[in-house]
Structure formats: C-alpha cells, structure tokens
C-alpha cells in the first residue's frame, strides 16, 4: 500500500459512525458495525470511571461514534448516545434533563419550571443509614402506608377524616363525667 493510500485509510478511520453490533460485559466492550466492516472488541466511553463510577451498557443497534487515535481501529473507543429513528430524543425542551428506560420508567427534571418526576417504577427502595429528610410544604401519599417503628409528630394537628385527633372528645360516655375528656 502506498503512503497516500495508508494516510487516507487512517484519516477515514479517525472518526466513524456506526451501530453497536454486539456487546461483551466482562471486560466491557462492543463491536461496532461501521460502513462495510465490524470493529474488533473496543471499549465504550462512560460518564465516570474514577473515584465515582457509572455503569450503563449500550444496547444492540445503538448509534455510536468510533474514535480511533491516529486512525488505527485497534486503538478505538465507542462514544455512545446518538439519537436516531430507533431511539428518538425523549423531548424537545431546551432545559429538561430526561432519562427514559426501556420498561417505561422515566426520570425527569425541568429547571425552567423547577419540576421533577420519577414515574413508571414498579418498586423503589431508598436505603439511608442515617436520617432521610423530606422538606416540603405538603406531602401527599396515594397508597396504603406501613410504618415499622415509632412515630413522633410535632408542629401541627393530626386529622383523620376531618377530625382533629388531639382535641377530639366523645360525648355520652359514662365514666364519671359527660365526656371522655381530651386525649391524655
């Protein structure tokens, strides 16, 4: 191969577009179909791989960019995350941050409206070895609630079906007076 042909080959391989052809989890690698070839096993780029580490494997058919140092595909890495017909953008907002999962779950936050949501999740577990704080003007639970542990309430009235529990009295109870008195 002459020098010009080799230079052109390398130049063409510096940046290539393709799709994930196959995935290997240990060690994390993909093969990418790009043009008329399929790469050898190459690593994919992740958000973090230092003291904080993220794990989010690619999916078959996901569009990627192959970056190869000096145009040598043996040095290539796959840069994940190009939108396409098979995986269109989940929004057209210029501010929102959205992750849409294949099972229908969705995590979103829109700083323009200061609203967020975590929806479509069957089970959610929060494990805090310390204290879990929820600071809000109002909390609404649309579910049966089970509390395994003591409950301390302060700072306001507790109502049940419109009755303020701590001031509620019963009339007509015969125990030496006309009412049962207030709570003790």
UniProtKB/TrEMBL annotation:
<dbReference type="Pfam" id="PF04717">
    <property type="entry name" value="Phage_base_V"/>
</dbReference>
<dbReference type="InterPro" id="IPR037026">
    <property type="entry name" value="Vgr_OB-fold_dom_sf"/>
</dbReference>
<protein>
    <submittedName>
        <fullName>Baseplate assembly protein</fullName>
    </submittedName>
</protein>
<dbReference type="Pfam" id="PF18946">
    <property type="entry name" value="Apex"/>
</dbReference>
<dbReference type="InterPro" id="IPR006531">
    <property type="entry name" value="Gp5/Vgr_OB"/>
</dbReference>
<dbReference type="InterPro" id="IPR044033">
    <property type="entry name" value="GpV-like_apex"/>
</dbReference>
<dbReference type="InterPro" id="IPR013046">
    <property type="entry name" value="GpV/Gp45"/>
</dbReference>
<feature type="domain" description="Gp5/Type VI secretion system Vgr protein OB-fold">
    <location>
        <begin position="18"/>
        <end position="83"/>
    </location>
</feature>
């Amino acid at each position: 191969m002459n020098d010009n042909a080799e230079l052109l080959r390398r130049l063409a391989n510096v940046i290539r577009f393709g799709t994930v052809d196959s995935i290997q989890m240990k060690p994390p690698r993909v093969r990418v179909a790009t043009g008329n070839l399929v790469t050898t096993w190459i690593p994919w780029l992740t958000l973090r791989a230092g003291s904080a580490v993220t794990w989010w494997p690619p999916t078959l058919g996901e569009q990627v960019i192959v970056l190869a140092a000096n145009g040598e595909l043996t040095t290539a890495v796959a840069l994940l995350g190009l939108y396409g017909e098979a995986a269109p953008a989940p929004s057209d907002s210029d501010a929102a941050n959205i992750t849409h999962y294949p099972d229908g779950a969705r995590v979103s936050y829109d700083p323009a409206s200061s609203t967020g949501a975590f929806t479509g999740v069957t089970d959610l577990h929060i494990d805090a070895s310390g204290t879990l704080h929820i600071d809000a003007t109002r909390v609404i639970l649309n579910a049966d609630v089970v509390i395994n542990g003591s409950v301390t309430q302060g700072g306001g009235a507790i109502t049940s079906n419109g009755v303020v529990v701590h001031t509620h009295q019963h009339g007509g109870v015969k125990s030496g007076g006309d009412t049962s008195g207030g709570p003790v």
